[in-house]
Amino acid sequence: MIFLAQAPAHPSMFWATMVPFMIMVAIIYMFIIRPQRTKEADRQEMLAGVRKGDRVITSGGLHGVVVNVKETELVILIDSNKDVKVKVERDAITSVRHKGEKAEED
Q1: 29-48 burial, b if ≥16 CB within 10 A, otherwise e?
Q2: Does 102 score more than 80 pLDDT?
């Protein structure tokens, strides 16, 4: 039997294969991971800033005014005429309009 020995790869071959891989990792980080982290940080800041009297919208589509704030949950007044209140998790809030802010007109 004859075994053919291969010549060792040149160091330039290593970099020629690694550079495209490193460029792809950098692109994924810049366009996917970093924006997602920024968006999540903004969301956490929004949820931490919820106060009594703020108008909120839940992920279920309920619109209401915050009447009680606890660490992980909120009590939202849905209908003031019938005194309908709903207890929701803080994470269920998708949008907050703080007291005194103008409504965005479409």
Answers
A1: eeeeeeeeeeeeeeeeeebe
A2: no
